[in-house]
Amino acid sequence: MEAHGLTRSEAPARADGQSRAIGVLRRLFDVAFAVTLILLFSPILIGVALAIRIDSRGPALFRQRRVGYLEREFTLFKFRSMRIDADPQSHQEYVTALIKGEGATRNGANGDGESLYKVAVDNRITGVGRWIRRWSLDELPQLFNVVRGDMTLVGPRPAIPYEVAEYPSWYRERFAVRPGLTGYWQVSGRSERTYEEMVRLDIEYAKRRSLGLDLSILLKTPWVVLSRKGAA
């Protein structure tokens, strides 16, 4: 029996070929777009790095282990926004409570509109760090993660290992695709979402993923950043 001129054995092979071609196209676009942005934003990257070094002791770049595609760990790059002696324990406790649905409102700790992942009152953050977080400039070094292939331009937020340790089994569906620099959750009112809603949006994206959806999210991202919609 044939389907649209193809035998049963030929149809899956053609679908696999199309999937691979889309994957290659997506990767080429990721690298080209990320390299272009790195070159375009190079004065900002240099300026932020210098401001961080002048403002507080320690390196400008912050490295952190994250969980990505198929639950493989990688090193994520960000601009450092906290003191080098900052203790991650308070954030770990806060995020654990979010995952369990304990002690945090839809708008963040204490209901004051803080971003989903940021503790409402956090004295670990430096002066420059507070400013670069406000405008999402701390995320720019993740462009290098995109070039390396750890991340893609659009996808779920890369999770911290101690978050994943608390995950119920169905949350792990979000690891079916590579984590992204921006994503469905980020353009859907991030601080207005609970942790579970964020995971559901990530899983919905993974199931609906297409070049058209990626383009739509990329086009919305500058407005979200500049308007600070849903940000701390």
Assembly state (oligomeric): single chain
- Strands of the widest sheet, in order across it, are 1-2
Mean pLDDT: 85
Silhouette: globular
Q: What structural category arises from helix and sheet content?
A: mainly alpha
Q: How many helix segments?
A: 8
Give the total of domains: 1
Helix content: 40-55%
pLDDT under 50 segments (min length 5)? 105-114
Alpha carbon gyration radius: 19 Å
Question: How would you summarize the topology of this molecule?
Answer:
Blueprint: E1 2-3, E2 6-7, H1 10-40, H2 42-55, E3 61-67, E4 73-79, H3 89-100, H4 127-134, H5 142-148, E5 152-154, H6 161-164, E6 180-182, H7 195-208, H8 211-227
Parallel strand pairs: 5-6
Antiparallel strand pairs: 1-2, 3-4
Q: Would you mind describing this structure in some detail?
A:
This protein is mainly α and 232 residues long. The chain has one domain (17-227). It is 46% helix and 10% strand. The chain has helices at residues 10-40, 42-55, 89-100, 127-134, 142-148, 161-164, 195-208, 211-227, and strands spanning 2-3, 6-7, 61-67, 73-79, 152-154, 180-182. The chain has a two-stranded antiparallel ribbon with strand order 1-2. Strands 3-4 form a two-stranded antiparallel sheet. Helix 1 (10-40) runs antiparallel to helix 5 and helix 2 (42-55) packs antiparallel against helix 4. It is globular and about 65 Å long.
